[in-house]
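Recall the central idea of this unit: under ordinary conditions, the amino acid sequence of a chain determines the structure it adopts. In this exercise we apply that idea directly, starting from the sequence alone.
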Amino acid sequence: MIFQRLIWAALAAALLVGSVQSGVQRWQAVPIIQAAEVYEGQKAETPAAPLAAMAHAHAEGAAPAHEHGTAEEWAPTDGAERIFWTWVANVLYAFSMALLVFAVMGVCLWRGTAMRSLPLGLLVAAAGWLSFHFLPSLGLHAEIPGMDAARLGSRQGWWVLAAGSAALACVSLAGLRGPSRWAAAAAWLALPFVVGAPHISADPLAGFSGEAQAQLRELGTQFIWATTWLSLSFWVSMGLVCGAAFQRWLRPVMAATFERARPLASAGKAVNP
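Accordingly, the structure predicted from this sequence is:
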């Protein structure tokens, strides 16, 4: 029963949060992406270009690759088809994150938290924002179409390191006691930057010149802020919706299940001291 409730609650949260995400994305990020795509045809090949992975973070959690000189891959056409598939991607991403948020909230409940569901959901969502956006974005900014970047595999590996380190920092703060938890959290947060994020030595916009390069730099700055607000809206919405859904559909069942399990665990310890 808990599994069914978990899936339906996550699906309901994903439909709501994914739809909100699509609307904010359409308002904040899409105009910048479309403006940058106008200049992509003006890009000249540079010595650094073949070495750079032509991948761009067009939206939260998505990085479609643009490879020159290879067969063109399928892409949705502009208009209704692109809007629909963007919405589908956002809902699927929100579904996976909702499952993660519910799982963490369930662990907190099992550990005996007395925090109400809504503040707990917002707290878990804040940890998600720190792990999946804020810390990784300090080393690897969101990129507009046309920018050169380091090899895709290197960037993905560093992103995983940054996200995992931020998550472990949150676990250290929640699970450890005493001053050592702050030291452990600080060490985890510093680790990705000790390793260093992968960047190319050349100018990412070296293939452009004149007005196109100036416009793309300005669009790049706007895109960094747009993706930051986009991520904030996603995680705030996720915290609010998951907090309400957890209280309504999951917390009563989980609390009852944990209460029944505790006497059995105590009995097992008494038999096997």
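The longest helix spans residues 211-271.
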